[in-house]
Amino acid sequence: MRKTPLQIYLRYSHNITIAVEAILSNKLKSLLTALGIMFGVAAVISMLAIGKGAQQEVLEQIKLVGVNNIIITPVFQASEGKEENNSEDKSKKQFSRGLHQLDAKAILETIPSVKKVSPVVALNYYAIKNGKSYPVTLNGVSPDYFEMLNIQIDKGKPFSLQHTDKGTPVCIIGSTIRNRFFSQSNPIGQYIKCGQVWLQVIGTIEKRDFTTSASDEMGISSSDNTIFIPLKTMLMRFKDRGAITPDVMDNMAGGGAVFFLGGSPDDEERSQGPEKNTHQLDKIIVQVKETEQLSATADVIKRLVLRRHSNNYDFEVTVPELLLKQQQKTNEIFNIVLGAIAGISLIVGGIGIMNIMLASVWERVREIGTRQAIGASRKDIIVQFLAESTLISITGGLIGILLGLVLAHLIHLMADIKTIISFYSVVVAFGVSATVGIIFGYIPAKRAASQDPVESLRH
Asked: Residue 11, exposed/middle/buried by CB under 10 A (0-12, 13-18, 19+)?
């Protein structure tokens, strides 16, 4: 006689009810059985959260360095304590003035794949306002600098063509400086003093999330504590290391290596020690039109600047985006390894469930025989034990999710590692835990169903 859907439902629900009663009557054993799943799920979620956080940091760094940017930075040559091997090498160094505006101009005009170029001069100064001073970084840049590095001006306006051509003493300030000097007033139109120059504030920059792992080598730096001025303003009113001064002429006449010194006492640290700064610019940022052209353009830039510097390697060309994408690829592999290691703990937890359920079958032989004697089929026994293992696994998975969320938060707080919990990782961890319960619960369930009713009742 064929059973109705209602009868099938009632029969299987009865089997599941028996499984729930068995779990509740042995709470401690059920908890110990689920421990492997709990910690396995927690490990999967927390490890994937670490990997996701690392990936997000890389994406943020790519955003900070801008799209398709190439960074050219100076390499300082020791001017003391070293003797040249021959006079030719020594004379060559005299003809390299280091990074210069003319290098930036040549790159922009010569290489077709270059979209924009921004020279950068950076000095350390003290900003003064109403008798209060604060150490800041003073950056001389071109108007394209902000767009190239995705720096947003939230109040005011960017540098105009008139500002850049005439070297007007205007500035755009970072959020830290704005909060330090203008917390109670609107900074636009007000003045702030750097060195002996009064700068009029024409704009402010919104605060940026700056990761500690970001480095100046890849062109990433915080703009919060920076005052930006036009490049010509920097060279005219503050310091131009490319200017020919009496000190430079005397040094050339003495046969020493050429290095250019300005007159700013605030930049003394740049001319201390055996390494002399011979570079007019501290950085040249080059933006390429297409990502596919990054590597080729970087190679052309290297050869161009090297020829202009008389084959002196007094500069370094870096492609931050390619480095960061390589780092991202490494992080993805790292995530797979972390997930695999954490997944092994889930398998171990499943084996633990299977072992304890097999032991439970042996302990409950008489119960199995009684159920079979009163009409339970082998399918009923399989459903009962399979439901028991699956419920233990699912419960352990739910508790493991909570543990994983807490663990990821603790890692972020205590180790200062960015963690991002994704919905995908939670679903995968929970799905695997439920699957493990079904797979590893089937063998004990099948063994329970295969028991001989007569022998079971005699047990």
From this structure: middle
First vs last C-alpha separation in the chain? 34
Structure tokens at 143: 């108007």
* Residue among 239, 319, 263, 252 nearest 287 (CA): 319
pTM, entire model: 0.61
b/e 157-195 (16+ beta carbons within 10 angstroms → b): ebbeeebbeebbbbbbbbbbbbebbbeeeebeeeebebb
**Angle made by CA atoms 308, 314, 315, in degrees to the nearest 5:** 85
Secondary structure class of 240 (helix, strand, coil): coil
Domain chopping of the chain, boundaries: 5-61+326-458, 67-321
* Residue 36 to residue 351: CA distance in whole angstroms: 9
Two structure tokens written together for 399? 């508790």
The CA-atom distances, in angstroms, between 34 and each of 19, 116, 244, 405, 437 are 15, 60, 77, 18, 10
CA 366/CA 127 separation, integer angstroms: 86
Tens of pLDDT along the chain (459 residues) come to: 566 666 665 666 777 787 788 788 888 888 888 888 888 888 888 888 888 887 777 777 666 667 788 888 888 765 444 444 555 555 445 567 788 888 999 999 999 999 999 999 999 988 888 888 889 899 999 998 988 888 888 888 889 888 888 889 999 998 888 988 888 888 999 999 988 889 999 999 887 765 545 544 454 566 788 999 999 999 988 888 877 655 554 554 444 433 333 334 444 344 344 456 678 888 899 988 887 888 889 899 999 998 888 888 888 888 876 766 776 677 777 777 777 777 787 788 788 888 877 777 777 777 777 777 777 778 888 888 888 888 888 888 899 999 999 999 998 888 878 888 888 888 888 888 888 878 888 888 887 778 776 666 665
User: Distance of CA 82 to CAs 1, 89, 94, Å?
Assistant: 102, 12, 15
Q: Rounded to whole angstroms, how far apart are CA atoms 210 and 220?
A: 9
27 burial class (0-12, 13-18, 19+ CB within 10 angstroms)? exposed
* Rounded distance between C-alpha atoms, residue 19 and residue 147, angstroms: 64
